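Pasting two entries for a bug report.
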Amino acid sequence: MDQGTLDSFAEERDKLSSGKMTVFVDNRELRSSVSDYLREFKVNVVEKQLTVADYVVSDRVAIERKSVKELANSIYTNRLFDECYRLKEAYEIPILILEGYLPVVFRFTRVNESSIWGAITSIAVELRVPIVPTPDTKHTARFIERLAYSEQVKIKRPIVIRPKEKVLTLAQQQQYLICGLPNIGSTLAENLLLKAKTPLNVFKQITESAVTQSKTGKTKRLSGSVAGVKGIGPAIVEKAKKILTSPYLKDEKNDNDKSLIDDNTITDRE
């Protein structure tokens, strides 16, 4: 171990033993001004490459931060569910910060309003991850600072740098696999598995299901084995079938590569 590494360890040890609050911040989050505000609030900011969470304030509390600008894209790609799921599995108290003015997303996104509210509902109810709204990065930093004060100063909880993710049972891994499909939360994934018995059968039943237009053309109807599963509908099946049956084209560029929100319209308030 070289001297530079030893110095770095010593500096971090001194910070943690100084009695001041410390927050571990994923290095990708340093592009926002949250870290600057945390330092302004007298918090020791320690940069780390975190595998789970954007901010860690104790051994049990960790935070995923999403700006409204990022929200629609992360819902569309299912990244938000994946991040929240892993956050919940790794920490006793996971928290999602939703930063910015949410109604702006409804106006300038290709994802419809009901899908956004549905995703937020699934995270809060099915994953049971608390969602905390903040108006901007300064208020996000203040909330994190208060969390750190409560955990580290008031009740003397230690801060853990890299917690190990919980080992998932086979059933949890199967459910997690199905949750990788768009708009399928943990409850629907469980319902599909109970019906089909195996993940492979779930995929088969989805691809074999049919979506047809009603005579008026105003509504769509779902038929097939998954039609009787509570919580599933034509829109979910259509998106899932597209992912399961489309050829993998590594270098192909299409509309999904474009941001779902006009970057010139929505800006983060930093």
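Entry 2 (this is the one that rendered wrong in the viewer):
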Amino acid sequence: MRIFIFFLFFISFKSIGQEIKVEANFIEDSIQIGNIVSYNLNVSYPNNIEVLLPDSNYNYSPFEYINKSYSSTINDSIYNYDEVTYKFTSFNLDSIQFLKLPVFIINSNDSLIMYSNTDSIFLMEFIKELSDSLNLKSNTKFSFVDMAIDYPFLSKIISSLIIFIITFYLLFRKKINKYFKTKYTKKEYNTFINKIEKLNDEIQKDFKIEKIELLLLLWKRYNEKVSKYPYASLTTSEIIHLGIVNDIKENLNSLDNTIYGNKKMTDFKKNFIMLKKHSTKVFNNKLKEINNE
């Protein structure tokens, strides 16, 4: 009885197998390491059975599965026709690589597995076997290459630096502003002193009214810039009237008498020293004002 059942099962499998055709082939003739190739699987089978094809879980060794695409099933009154295109890659170094795929047949009575024909593809080699007779030549010269810039890391450093500078300024802005104001005020004072000292030397060597006028103009402009009083836009009499130059009234009048009264001056050096002292006092008052901010 068991032999009879096995015989019937064998006859049934053989008849189903004769009605099902499984064909497979690579579209390309060769493959390069890591490249993608296409593999077609065509199956025709009777309408009264169901067929399952390999999916992403199947082991396609020596190939690695990438994806697959189905063509719509075509059918007539007797047969269904399925076509699937698989995409594979390979990192295998065999010069010829083989593949065949199973088809799982399911009907109401039993389940069977049929395999496609075996197809092969050639591995395209880029490095041939090196001959032992080759003479290798050493190269000991340095080759300079451009340094790679890590832009994301660089942008993080720049952003952090900007945040640090802004935070530092917000915390210490008063001291920072005071430092730069003081530095600028001292620089202006030193420049002014150098100019009038140079002009004083010229007057001592060659006494001219034009040079005394220039000296007085420089003196007024500097004092106006550093203080809150309009020295440059006022006459000497107006400046004295304001009461801001009580310490040098006589010296200013002496200079005016020389410039506008054409009177000879015998004590220019003393007048120059007094004007210079007054400007130094204005400068020191400005420094105190900055320190008290």
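Dev reply: Rendering is fixed now. As a check, the viewer should reflect this: Strands lie at 21-26, 30-31, 36-46, 50-52, 64-75, 79-89, 96-99, 102-106, 111-115, 119-123.
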